[in-house]
């Protein structure tokens, strides 16, 4: 992805945050100079994968396959004294797919905070064994109600949440208008706990055609 495209997507996400009056931590608006001025804090955040994240999954078609995220808090899996949970914000475009993927470690709730409809679909293919040793579920819960995972597109409106079982391949996209989404989960590890159904890349190669508006989490603290 070009840096200019990454900058534009983050600015759109910031506008969406303002639209929903969603307050952010101070480091969400850090410039590269702020990271340089706060090296220890920047490194601490980067080690925990906290901050901005933009990906086109190595496909070069961000509007069709891509995602903007902001990780607000996270721990280091299995490390003593670390938080065992994570919180993210996701900015999902209309018709913009996050492709099928599964997690071995992370159980997560995906919560629609505002905007359009979030469409979630599951696949029986490509299941991975959860680290917990539990079997991969074939049913999901939406706000306490239990539903078959497969054979349907689950459409979530603002205020609704779906629990994504470990090991189950899932994808999602927006419908109607851009969707403002939250995620609460166990520790998140985007380097080692994403198992895609296709041969995809989690991180994008960046073409530096302009200066960064915000650094991505894997660029902060020497990430």
UniProtKB/TrEMBL annotation:
Its EC number is 5.3.1.15. It catalyses: D-lyxose = D-xylulose. The keyword Manganese applies. Keywords: Carbohydrate metabolism, Isomerase, Manganese, Metal-binding. GO terms for molecular function: D-lyxose ketol-isomerase activity; metal ion binding. It is an enzyme of class 5 (isomerase). Gene3D superfamilies: Jelly Rolls (2.60.120.10). It holds the Pfam family Lyx_isomer. It comes from the Bacteria. Its cofactor is Mn(2+). The keyword Metal-binding applies. CDD domains: cupin_EcSI. Belongs to the D-lyxose ketol-isomerase family. This is D-lyxose ketol-isomerase. It comes from Paracoccus alkanivorans.
